[in-house]
Design goal:
Mean pLDDT: 95
Strand content: 15-25%
Low-confidence stretches: none
Shape: globular
Strand order of the largest sheet: 6-7-5-8-9-10-11-12-13
CATH superfamily of the largest domain: Mur-like, catalytic domain
CATH topology of the largest domain: UDP-N-acetylmuramoyl-L-alanine:D-glutamate ligase
CATH architecture of the largest domain: 3-Layer(aba) Sandwich
CATH class of the largest domain: Alpha Beta
Length: 426
């Protein structure tokens, strides 16, 4: 079926979905395949659940005239998303980076939503499936669409950029994330900068953090930029006040006191301010929306239980974000600090070295109350006072014996470690 004909049926549908467990009525169901599933097998269930059309790539799944047979369902979903993006013609802001993507996306969304009609990526649906689904949620009555892009190997951001075709873009930072897929830190820089490459090739606009030398190097002499940072020559000049523990900064002679912990969140806030300024959001609205934003989903959350303060940052971890969180904890003006650190994944042959670097930093800057969880941390060389646990089950008995009072805890690890489970024992 030609894309024009498919698009008419899409417009005749309420929405799109890839999951028969939660199908909106009159939606268009895309029967995606994966390593352990085949959406084509759920077509009867999709119609029973209220789907109006089913897009399939298995001829045996065609059970009625509302089945649309294509060569490849995923490719069709991606092509439809780009076709729709071009038809609605709204400005698209895309962002990627090693750390802080989702927080930054939500801050930008909050700021722009104070004066405009905006939709953004839900959660972290930021891959080759999530980006098309995000675009297909956008409508022509929007003032902006915000698309988060994630990647763990080269050419992925290039691919997603060609699907979303953004008008504006930014990179939060370059960090030691997904080193296994990118082949090292230089691969991370090259891979994330594929967004810059798309924007430059298509004469689009780039938001650049002038406090980040690597960003400036990657953008080179490209002129279509909007700069922000502490440099008073930036288009949007900000001043970092402190992060003890929450980030405060000033802009346009106005102090903004966020509910985000750690100076590593300063850049995330700064770009939201810069985008707000560029699109003429009032300073009052910028201040109000940023100060009211509260992190959730295990991302830099501050939780208080009696006399215990918990910094829960267990959604994900890599060497860069782990070190940033540790440096932040070190400078906090509190006593009785506890560290619960879980393995960092997808580091490939750099795993042993990067975990050892974290251990060396921790043991040089914290005296005790150090708990390391996971197989990678268990391969490191540590002091006798550092407590090691192969997995969460091994940690449980220790948690039951802890008598915590007037303590500050940092809980951080990769998603697979699920260290938020520690909260059940506190």
């Amino acid at each position: 079926m030609k894309i024009e004909s498919l698009y008419k049926k899409f417009k005749d549908s309420s929405s799109v979905s890839t999951d028969t467990r939660k199908l909106p009525k009159d939606c268009m169901y895309f029967a995606l395949k994966g390593g352990n599933f085949d959406g084509n097998k759920f077509v009867p269930q999709a119609f029973d659940s209220g789907a109006k059309y089913c897009v399939v790539d298995d001829s045996t799944a065609v059970i009625n005239s509302n089945c649309i047979f294509v060569d490849d369902v995923l490719t069709t979903l991606q092509h439809l998303a780009t076709y729709h993006r071009n038809n609605i013609g709204i400005p698209i802001i895309s962002l990627t980076g090693s750390n802080g993507k989702t927080t930054t996306k939500e801050l930008i969304y909050s700021v722009l939503s104070s004066q405009y009609k905006v939709k953004a990526t839900i959660g972290n649906l930021n891959n080759h499936i999530g980006v098309p689904l995000t675009l297909l949620r956008f409508t022509e009555d929007l003032d902006f669409g915000i698309v988060e892009m994630g990647a763990n190997h080269l050419k992925e951001i290039e691919f997603l950029s060609n699907i979303a075709q953004p008008d504006y873009g930014l990179i939060t930072n370059f960090g030691k994330a997904h080193l296994e897929g990118f082949g090292g830190f230089e691969g991370v820089i090259k891979g994330k900068s594929e967004l810059y490459d798309y924007l430059k090739t298509n004469d689009k606009t780039v938001f650049i953090n002038t406090d980040d030398k690597k960003q400036i190097e990657q953008i080179s002499s490209y002129k279509n930029t909007i700069t922000f940072g502490k440099n008073d020559k930036s288009d949007c000049t900000l001043k970092f006040i402190n992060a003890n523990p929450l980030v405060s900064l000033s802009y346009d002679e106005t102090e903004i006191n966020s509910q985000l912990i750690g100076d590593y969140n300063y850049g995330n806030i700064a770009v939201a301010v810069a985008i707000g300024k560029h699109f003429e959001i009032s300073t009052n609205n910028i201040k109000k929306t940023i100060e009211s934003y509260q992190p959730d989903n295990n991302r830099s959350e501050i939780i208080e239980k009696g006399t215990i303060k918990i910094i829960l940052d267990a959604y994900n971890a890599n060497p860069t974000s782990m070190l940033a969180a540790l440096k932040n904890l070190k400078q906090l003006d509190v006593t009785n600090k506890y560290l619960f650190l879980g393995d960092m994944f997808e580091l490939g042959n750099k795993a042993e070295k990067e975990h050892q670097i974290i251990v060396d930093f921790v043991e040089s800057n914290f005296d005790d109350n150090i708990f390391l969880i996971g197989e990678n941390f268990n391969k490191t060389k540590t002091k006798k006072t550092t407590q090691m646990f192969s997995n969460f089950e091994d940690l449980k008995p220790e948690l039951k014996t802890l008598q915590l009072k007037d303590a500050t805890l940092l809980i951080k690890g990769s998603r697979g470690m699920a260290l938020e489970r520690i909260l059940e024992f506190l």
